[in-house]
């Protein structure tokens, strides 16, 4: 056999081998299609439609849709049209290729409500459906509720905010003229038990005062972060203790582990203080007073859900004296005593570190060991000194602060401490009517705060669904003889709804 014939035989054998391999490969089954991109369950409103478009891995020759046992489509997507009546529908999607069938089963429930889920003491944002686009007269309503401890607050034109204390099913309606959607919100148990008490302290900076560095105790070397942690140790939980905010402007920022719901018609939370009534006030028929050192209250809810209060989220609780004290029952007496009853909305005060802690050699005042102790100046052109009294020898300036000056901003309330004996021995610090911390005894209804008293920085009333954070600062700048400066003290914080405490509100 010559070389040419050998080559032809070799080539023929090679072609037969290739042909044989190709035949075997063609007989191998393909990889089965994989159906993805679909949920196992859907909820669709009656008379509404829903388009289903799965993603298919691997080659597919045919995609068949079977609804309630009836073949309804052979396509890569399917539009389900909900009938007029509520019910449950089984949809089977089958994907074919050579030698393979894959399927996925989907259950579709049709009903008359848009179904949503949430948890107690959580803010749920509701958004109107597309059919309300460009409508500016939307109305949100609660139709039925298993509890009265809820809040529905309108957001912008297309949204609302819902929160509730109790589990159960809440039916809502959003409407604009003849357009209506109904919503069914199922509130399930929270994943973990929620505490009715303060859960965290974010910041703490008292202004100079006679209990500063003692409540809580400062130890040499403590930093700002350490003192915030110490304040948290005193305030977190049910068994809380007192801390001081010092003089005017001193503050603390705290938070709860849940949203305190703003329930209409009720006071929602309170922060304990150490206010008490006078036992022997010589003034007959005097209004309530004794040791009332009101702290101004700010509130915020975690709008951006970052777990901390941001400066643009704060709202002011409009206490009875935040704009003027003229309606307070003690105001006329205070005016007659030539007290400073002015209210400053945008007040600032700067305190300077004391030059000395050494007592004066010959004090002019029996109550003061250092007369010109801590220099201060405000944005109203006033200045002076805070005294150091004979009852508290430690430094009144927060020792963990390195700055030589501290500036605080906020509302300065009218002076409420009136000397009633005529001899300088009996000071009565009268209560404002409502809206403050450390202003009434803790068991008094007026120690409760209604979130509906919140206003924005322009004084406009706001409708908040609830709050996550509270800031309290001392609102009084007044020296009261031997008692020393008015200094707000705070203790345990309480969500009144979780505790089952019902206190009716007032409408200022």
From TrEMBL:
<protein>
    <recommendedName>
        <fullName>Cell surface protein</fullName>
    </recommendedName>
</protein>
């Amino acid at each position: 056999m010559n070389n040419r014939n050998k080559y032809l035989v070799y080539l023929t054998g090679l072609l037969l081998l290739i042909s044989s391999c190709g035949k075997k490969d063609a007989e191998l089954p393909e990889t089965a299609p994989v159906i993805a991109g679909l949920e196992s369950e859907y909820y669709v409103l009656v008379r509404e439609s829903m388009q289903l478009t799965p993603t298919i891995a691997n080659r597919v020759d045919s995609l068949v849709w079977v609804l309630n046992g009836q073949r309804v489509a052979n396509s890569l997507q399917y539009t389900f049209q909900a009938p007029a009546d509520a019910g449950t529908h089984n949809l089977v999607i089958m994907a074919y290729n050579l030698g393979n069938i894959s399927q996925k089963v989907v259950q579709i429930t049709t009903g008359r409500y848009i179904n949503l889920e949430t948890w107690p003491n959580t803010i749920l944002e509701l958004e109107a459906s597309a059919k309300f686009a460009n409508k500016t007269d939307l109305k949100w309503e609660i139709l039925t509720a298993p509890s009265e401890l809820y809040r529905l607050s309108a957001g912008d034109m297309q949204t609302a905010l819902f929160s509730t204390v109790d589990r159960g099913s809440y039916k809502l309606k959003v409407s604009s003229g003849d357009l209506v959607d109904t919503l069914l919100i199922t509130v399930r148990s929270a994943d973990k038990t929620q505490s009715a008490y303060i859960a965290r302290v974010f910041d703490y900076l008292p202004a100079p005062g006679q209990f500063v560095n003692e409540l809580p105790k400062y130890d040499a070397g403590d930093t700002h972060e350490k003192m915030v942690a110490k304040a948290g140790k005193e305030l977190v939980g049910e068994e809380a203790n007192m801390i001081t905010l010092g003089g005017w402007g001193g503050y603390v920022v705290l938070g709860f582990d849940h949203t305190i719901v703003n329930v209409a018609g009720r006071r929602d939370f309170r922060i304990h203080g150490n206010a008490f009534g006078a036992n022997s006030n010589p003034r007959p028929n005097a209004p309530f007073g004794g040791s009332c050192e009101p702290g101004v209250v700010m509130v915020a809810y975690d709008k951006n859900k970052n777990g901390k209060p941001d400066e643009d989220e704060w709202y002011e609780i409009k206490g009875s004296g935040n704009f003027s004290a003229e309606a307070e029952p003690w105001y006329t007496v205070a005016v007659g005593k030539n007290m400073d009853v002015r209210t400053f909305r945008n007040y600032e005060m700067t305190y300077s570190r004391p030059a000395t802690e050494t007592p004066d050699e010959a004090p002019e005042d029996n109550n003061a060991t250092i007369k010109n102790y801590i220099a201060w100046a405000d944005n109203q052109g006033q200045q002076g000194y805070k005294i150091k009294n004979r009852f508290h020898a430690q430094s009144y300036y927060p020792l963990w602060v390195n700055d030589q000056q501290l500036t605080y901003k906020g509302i300065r309330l009218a002076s409420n401490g009136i000397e009633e004996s005529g001899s300088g021995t009996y000071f009565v610090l009268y209560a404002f009517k409502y809206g403050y911390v450390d202003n009434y005894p803790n068991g008094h209804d007026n120690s409760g705060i209604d979130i509906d008293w919140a206003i924005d920085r322009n004084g406009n009333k706001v409708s908040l669904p609830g709050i996550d954070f509270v800031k309290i600062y001392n609102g009084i700048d007044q020296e009261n003889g031997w008692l020393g400066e008015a200094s707000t003290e705070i203790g345990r914080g309480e969500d009144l709804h979780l505790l089952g405490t019902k206190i009716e509100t007032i409408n200022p």
